[in-house]
Structures are given as C-alpha cells and as structure tokens.
Amino acid sequence: MNIIDLHCDALLKLWEGKGSLRFADSPELDTNKTRLQKGKVKAQCFAIFIEPDIPSDQKFQAALEQIDYFYNEVLGKNPDMVHIKEWADFDKLKLGQIGAMLTLEGVDAIGNDLTKLHILYQLGVRSVGLTWNNANLAADGAGEPRGAGLTLFGKEIVSFNNKHQILTDVSHLSDRGIWEVLELAEYPIASHSNSRALCDHPRNLTDEQAEAMFRKNGLIHVVYHPPFVKEDGETKISDLIKHIDRFCSLGGVKHIGLGSDFDGISKFITDLEDASKSQNLINELLKHYREDEVRGFACENFLRLRPGVGR
Ligand SMILES: [Zn+2]
Q1: Ligand 1 centroid – CA 37 distance (Å)
Q2: What's the gap in Å between 132 CA and the centre of ligand 1?
Q3: Most buried by CB count within 10 Å: which residue of 32, 175, 193, 256?
C-alpha cells in the first residue's frame, strides 16, 4: 500500500555529509531512495532543518544549501524522484515515481524577513512549522520554558501560509502556539506528533488539541520516534498503533497520517528502523482496521485534505 510520509531529515544528513552521501543508496540514510521504494513510500516530505547552534547570519545560507542538496542530489541524480511543487502534482505521479516535497522545520533561517520565506516558497516549500524546540522570532517552541505563543511576525507568517496555500505545521510548537495556530491557520497540520494522553511529552498533542485539529479539517501524522510513543522499554509497532487508536477515538479516523521522522531520530521502533520497513506498519494496521481506513492513514486522508483540494 502506498504511503505518503510527511517528515524526514535526510536533507540535514546530506548537508552534514558535505557530498559524501548518495541519496540513491547510502546506508546512512534511513530514507534513501532504495529504502523508500522497498517501503512503498510514494511521496516523501523533506524538511529543511537548521541546527540552533548555527549563527543567525549563516542560517539562510544553510537552508539554501540544503535545498541545493534537494535539487541536485535527491532530484537531479534520480529521474524517478519527482518534485511536488503544486498540490495537484501528487495526482500526476506515475508508476515507479516517488514524489518529493520541501518543508520547513522552524523559520529561524528567515530571521524577520518575509521575503526570504517567499524565496523558500518559490523554491518549493509547501509546509512551514514556525519553530523547532527553541524560541525564534515567530514563536516559542515546545522546549522553551517561557511557553509563549506567536509573535506578530509569527502571525504574519501564518497569514502568508494561508494566502499561498501552505500548510502551517504545529509539531514542535509550544502549547500556546499550537492553540493560536489552530485559531489562525487555514491549513493546520501536525507533521510528526503523537498523543500526549498516551505518552506525556510536550512534543505530543493533548486530546483537546487533537480534537480542535480535526474540527479544522487538519491532519495529525503520527511519528515513529520511541520517546514520543512510549515512556520506556522496547517500543513496538503495536505501541504506535495505540496512538492511532486514541486519535480515532477522538473522531480522527479520516484525519490521521504518517510522519516518520526518519533521519532525524537515532532510536527506533522494532521492525520500523528505516523507510524500507514501512509496510510492517501497514500490515499490522490491517489487522486492526478496515483496508479503506488504513489506506486513509497511509496516504488518502492527506490527499483528500491537502490545500486546494478538500479544504
Ligand atoms: Zn522534528
């Protein structure tokens, strides 16, 4: 069954590798092309993520360099990787092709300059999370003790996203930030977050936040990172499915997707260690859910609710 994965950090690894890694098959990449093919990942979102310790005046350059890897290493050397630049492009993927879409994990790279966001949009960014775990000029992240919401600049970014049919991603935001985005964003999404009721971590969403997301026709894409699945011990695929069960119990059966976080994590769910194992999750889901429901989680909920189509 085809999968659309809303989050991976392969671009960060490619950038850190300074040209030493091949997207086609380097084993260091959980989401290399060979593994995506084996796992039947039909489309993969590639996050631009800038480490907080990169000096502010070098962050935009670092973002452009990661985009350069996207264009030249991911797309340029692999004709079967197809750039998803418009929402309708998902419908044009042919057999054997894999779609690739750029996303932005935290707006630190643009400083206070919306022109830079416009440039990133023109280069193909179609989902923008305001923060990573720390604070920036747009908002506070989930790890920022201050716990503030959006700045005026953060609200301008959400308006920009609304105007350009860009998803606004709440994964990594502070609680207050999540509520404000849910109020303001036309296209809210959580690209890689689980249920806080099952695993009490600030990166996860409360039941109330999840319900508000579903009411807004948004999506929650569950993340495979063990610390967001279960507090300790071995983490199994069945533990991840409990998060899907929880979101379904809140009315989310048509609002759930997948957001692996591969290449951004170093601990793994057993039997879900890289993209090539993705069908293990699908097969386990098929034991618990109807096929059409699993198809929804795997890709169809996202396709139905993507901007310009379902909302
Ligand atoms: Zn992340």
Answers
A1: 23
A2: 7
A3: 193
